[in-house]
Specification:
Elements: H1 7-15, H2 24-31, E1 47-52, E2 63-66, E3 72-76, E4 78-82, E5 87-89, E6 102-107, E7 113-117, E8 120-125, E9 128-132, E10 138-144, E11 150-155, E12 164-168, E13 171-175, E14 191-193, E15 199-202, E16 206-209, E17 214-217, E18 229-235, E19 241-248, E20 251-258, E21 261-264, E22 266-267, E23 270-271, E24 277-282, E25 288-292, E26 297-301, E27 304-308, E28 319-324, E29 330-334, E30 337-342, E31 346-349, E32 360-365, E33 371-375, E34 378-383, E35 386-390, E36 392-393, E37 396-397, E38 401-406, E39 412-416, E40 419-424, E41 427-430, E42 444-450, E43 456-462, E44 467-474, E45 477-483, E46 491-496, E47 502-506, E48 511-515, E49 518-523, E50 534-539, E51 545-549, E52 552-557, E53 560-564, E54 575-580, E55 586-590, E56 593-597, H3 599-607, E57 616-618, E58 637-639, E59 645-648, E60 653-656, E61 670-677, E62 680-682, E63 688-690, E64 696-703, E65 713-719, E66 733-737, E67 742-751, E68 757-768, H4 776-842, H5 848-877, H6 886-897, E69 904-910, H7 918-938, E70 943-950, E71 954-960, H8 967-972, H9 979-989, ...
Helix pairs in contact: 4-5, 6-7, 7-9
Length: 1021
């Protein structure tokens, strides 16, 4: 009877989605020296990160994988893409049905993401989804073989359609049931490839395809009516495979096939015959991981199993899948979330790993590779990562274990409760006082040492009585009990002096030496510094003393005390312990973590105490949990024979293996994920053109390393804007504002947690379009216009200067013309007349009366010439620039007029006197002066009247009752005379209205009106 997989069984399989490892070979091939989880650790000793459904993570993630671009993909009903910080829902194109139900995910080497669904096989690459034609049935699992071929298994195939298929181009080649290829499967679920290249797949039995035919196993059980058969596979060495079986034959469990034998897989802590497994993975260290339906996670290494479930911190006990990424991190999906396990440099051993409680006092590494730990209520022995506890000694429960020591004979010395004991060959022995009594009165033993004579020294702190005992023990008897409370107050730490005697350290930072009953305090700490709190103390084989204090590391050698602290480059100065590794490097347990000082730096600092040291720090993210042992029990550090370093931490015993490199060698892939300009998102798949006047620009980028995303570093630059690299620390966005039009290239590079940089990084090219007024042609046009405008301004200015110069020249010419006219009309004519008188007198030199009359007449004419010359000078020198009042100036002109004639003169002023522009005011004065002088000299009038009016405009009116002026002279002027022409020209220059009204015998009226806006500084309202 042939077995057909029923729908109920299939739905059960869908509820318990399984994952298997086929990536060990592939990931090692891709990442070269990629790190991985240390196979010798317990699961609880890895760093553990969780994303739980109760914290907002999507419910019940099924499957997880990583594509070659570094992204993690998670199937949660839909599809999520994860970069270590942000989970982004991804919706494949419309060819991918929304109700497909993802059964399996695979990231292949060509960058594709393969998805097995209930409705068929899909491939997502470069944002495009492609579906493969499958007429019926669903796809259950996918692998990529060593040659890059894609294989799938199918369910509900029916008829003669094959359950095992290989992708060929855009089609599937399937191996049908009952055909020549020998495939007996009605369906197939699990899928794997072993190191020899054979394809293993699970159906109602275990089957193997060797390239030409199919072999099957458990054939006697293939017709069993219940169960899904083989639901999970993990391939090992050639011809071997682990299989997770659901309800076939004898039931369920994990079975191992090798060399023709198929048996239940059973190791200490794991019974493969009873465990319902749904996910199997063999990691790159060839250790087996098993995810179960309801019992959490198992890790099988070194021949025994380690369990980790919800009680220990797993998100859920129902495991769906297990996946190892390219950096060696392990991903687990459960019904309650996603778990990530990663390796860390510091291993913790606590109550989770078998230690009793978290109160640790001391640690001792013995020569037989065992590690002994003092605890509250127990003595622990750690051997090959297994912990055994001793809680009762000689029928008495242990309350506390304090100081520990191994002597040169290999005996273990212990301070247990308030006494001293030794341990040898599995037996405990009490140390007695000299009188044979048990040592139960001296207090807790805080420190041991062995001197060069083989004597054991210890310090006992009697808390109730505040006494400090220094004990010397030989032959299991206390030889000396010295109360040194008064000699060395606060004595606490011991170390043997290779030259004889012992060194004693105090809790307040002092150092003393004891030899043959004599105690000397040799150091009180650094000069001038306040007392320090000493946390630990040791003496090396060269006799150098090392003391860890809250003020740095003390080093004492040959009477010289040096201190290493923050001034030397330590990130923190509070040191709890120090320990040298086998390479000579110094390790410090500090408040800020564990610090490694390279051997070369240590040697240099020893020679030059002010030198800087390079301190590599391992902090909380590396598993560090340093802390102060309140009782300051010794020793709090140990180096085991295999080179591992052990420290008493805050709540656990912590181990560092200096020989193992924890450096992550894998540079992180870098991606530009988004471009947002003024609130609008743009695709980054091709060069982007942004609209003109783009103001706010955001570029989102990421790098894909999942070891410690918190420690990743980024640098970016925008070519065309940034002069150098910008360090945003851990920020994953770049912001720019007001970018000018032009083309830009954004470059971003990133480093992983250990500073390994991806120097290639990622780039994004984009262009900011120019507005019409930002274009080159517009700028060129503006340049041309600006040049033309400057040229026009220059030409205008040249013309203005030329006009000004011409005006000045014209004014000078006019003034010279007026002076010439005045000289001609008055002074020169008088001189000419004087010459005529002189000539007439000279014609009759012997006529004395005539000569006398001529001389008198000549004197009169010369007086007149003097007055006329003075008048010309006054017209040049007397200016209204010296006074503001035209009335006073005209009054002086009228007084001058009276020197020429006896006519009656008068001046009338109306309106309020205004402040006037001096140049215009001077022109008005010259016009009025010329009119007054002409009236005085030529009018023959008896009356001269001047009217000055300060109204909206300035008015000047000068009239006389003289002989008048011929109208033709008024219009054209008198030949050779320029007075009237000069007055008209001056009036035009100041934009005034000038007129002369005159006729023969009726007098003359000269009128001048000057606009107030021209002459007044402040116009009347």
């Amino acid at each position: 009877m042939k077995h057909h997989r029923n729908s109920q069984s299939l739905s059960s399989w869908r509820r318990h989605r399984t994952a298997l490892s086929i990536f060990s070979f592939l990931l090692l091939f891709l990442t070269g020296t990629a790190s991985a989880l240390d196979p010798h650790r317990l699961i609880s000793q890895y760093a553990h990160t969780v994303w739980r459904t109760q914290d907002g993570f999507p419910h019940a993630p099924h499957m997880i994988t990583q594509t070659s671009d570094g992204y993690i993909w998670i199937a949660v009903g839909g599809l999520l893409r994860f970069d270590g910080v942000t989970m982004t829902p991804v919706s494949p194109q419309k060819s991918f049905p929304t109700d497909a139900g993802i059964n399996w995910l695979l990231g292949s080497r060509d960058g594709s993401l393969w998805m097995a669904t209930f409705h068929g096989l899909y491939r997502l690459k470069d944002g495009e989804a492609f579906s493969f034609p499958i007429k019926r049935g669903g796809v259950e699992s996918i692998i990529e073989d060593h040659d890059g071929a894609i294989w799938v298994t199918r369910s509900r195939v029916g008829g003669i359609e094959g359950a095992l298929c290989r992708v060929v181009g855009n089609d599937l080649k399937c191996y049908a049931k009952d055909k020549s290829d020998g495939n007996p499967a009605h369906y197939a679920i699990a899928l794997a490839q072993d190191s020899s290249g054979d394809i293993w797949f699970g159906c109602q039995m275990l089957c193997r395809w060797n390239g030409s035919s199919i072999s099957h196993y458990m054939q006697d059980q293939m017709d069993h009516p219940s169960g899904d058969g083989v639901v999970g596979l993990a391939a090992g060495a050639a011809g071997s495979v682990w299989a997770a079986v659901d309800g076939v034959g004898a039931g369920l469990g994990v079975r191992y096939y090798s060399n023709g034998s198929l048996t239940s897989y059973v190791v200490p802590g794991f019974d493969g015959a009873t465990i319902r497994a749904v996910a199997l993975l063999v990691d790159r260290h060839q250790t087996l991981w098993v995810g179960t339906e309801s019992q959490g996670l198992y890790h099988i290494r070194d021949g025994h199993a380690d369990h980790y479930g919800a009680a220990q911190g797993l998100t859920g006990d129902e495991v769906h899948s297990i996946y190892e990424d390219r950096e060696g991190n392990l991903w687990i999906t459960t019904d309650k979330g996603v778990d990530l396990f990663r390796d860390i440099p510091i291993v913790s051993v606590s109550s989770t790993e078998g230690l009793s409680g978290s109160d640790l006092s001391a640690v001792l590494a013995r020569s037989d590779n065992s590690l002994w730990v003092g605890l509250k209520g127990a003595l622990a022995e750690v051997l090959q990562d297994s912990v055994s506890l001793t809680t009762v000694v000689d029928g008495h429960p242990i309350q506390d274990v304090y100081a520990l020591l191994e002597d040169h004979l290999g005996r273990l010395w212990l301070g247990i409760d308030r006494t001293v004991m030794t341990y040898q060959l599995g037996r405990f022995f009490d140390i007695k006082a000299q009188d044979g009594r048990r040592l139960d009165h001296i207090g807790k033993i805080v420190s041991f040492t062995e001197d060069i004579d083989g004597s054991i020294w210890s310090i006992a702190n009697d808390d109730p009585r505040h006494l400090i005992h220094l004990l010397r023990i030989k032959d299991r008897r206390v030889q000396e009990d010295i109360q040194i409370t008064s000699l060395v107050p606060r004595a606490h730490f011991l170390g043997a002096d290779p030259t004889g005697g012992i060194w004693i350290g105090t809790t307040d930072g002092k150092l003393a030496h004891y030899l043959n009953g004599v105690t000397n305090i040799v150091s009180n700490g650094p000069s001038g510094a306040p007392p320090a709190v000493m946390h630990s103390f040791s003496v090396d084989s060269a006799g150098v003393i090392w003391a860890a204090t809250n003020r740095g590391l003390y080093r004492w050698e040959h009477g010289i005390l040096n201190v290493m602290d923050s001034r030397n480059g330590l990130p923190c100065s509070t040191i709890f312990a120090s320990l040298m590794d086998s390479s000579g490097s110094l390790w410090l347990e500090g408040l800020c973590g564990y610090l490694r000082i390279p051997a070369a730096d240590l040697v240099n600092w020893t020679a030059h105490p002010n030198a800087q040291v390079t301190a590599t720090i391992l902090g909380p993210l590396d598993g560090a949990d340093p802390g102060w042992n309140g009782d300051q029990i010794q020793p709090n550090t140990a180096r085991s024979p295999d080179g591992r370093l052990w420290f008493v931490g805050s709540s656990a015993l912590q181990m560092i293996d200096p020989a193992r490199s924890y450096k992550n060698p894998t540079p992180p892939p870098v991606h530009v994920e988004g471009l947002v300009a003024d609130g609008k998102s743009y695709s980054t798949a091709s060069p982007v053109t942004l609209p003109p006047l783009t103001r706010d620009l955001e570029i989102d980028y990421t790098a894909l390393s999942f070891v410690l995303p918190q420690r990743m570093g980024f640098r970016y630059r925008l070519e065309g804007r940034d002069n150098g690299w910008v360090d945003p620390r851990s920020r994953r966005q770049a912001f720019y504002s007001d970018l000018r039009p032009g083309s830009y290239r954004f470059r971003v590079i990133a480093s992983n947690n250990d500073g390994v940089w991806n120097e290639t990084g990622a780039t994004l090219d984009f262009r900011v379009a120019a507005a019409w007024y930002q274009t080159y042609w517009f700028r060129a046009l503006c340049f041309v216009v600006a040049v033309l405008l400057l040229w026009a301004i220059y030409q205008l200015r040249v013309r203005q200067i030329a006009g000004t110069m011409r005006a000045r020249f014209d004014e000078r010419l006019a003034e010279r013309t007026r002076i010439a006219r005045d000289l001609h009309d008055t002074f020169l004519q008088t001189i000419q007349g004087s010459k005529l008188v002189a000539d007439d007198a000279l014609s009759a030199p012997n006529d004395l009366p005539r000569m006398r009359q001529a001389v008198e007449k000549l004197s009169t004419w010369l007086g007149r010439a003097t007055e006329e010359g003075r008048a010309v000078l006054n017209s040049l020198r007397t200016s209204t620039t010296e006074v503001n009042d035209l009335a006073d100036a005209f009054r002086r002109a009228l007084e001058e007029c009276r020197t020429y004639t006896s006519m009656e003169v008068s001046l009338q002023v109306s309106g309020q006197i205004q402040e006037m522009h001096p140049i215009v005011r001077d022109e008005v004065y010259r016009i009025g002066y010329e009119a007054i002088r002409n009236a005085c000299v030529h009018s023959q009038a008896t009356q001269l009247r001047v009217e000055l009016s300060y109204a909206e405009d300035l008015g000047l009116r000068i009239f006389d009752n003289g002989a008048g002026i011929d109208p033709d002279i008024v219009q054209r002027g008198k030949l050779g005379h320029f007075g009237l022409q000069s007055m008209r020209e001056r009036a035009v220059r100041i934009m005034g209205k000038f007129s002369i009204e005159s006729s023969a015998g009726s007098g003359t009226v000269v009128t001048l009106t000057v606009p107030g806006g021209i002459i007044y500084r402040t116009i009347n309202s």
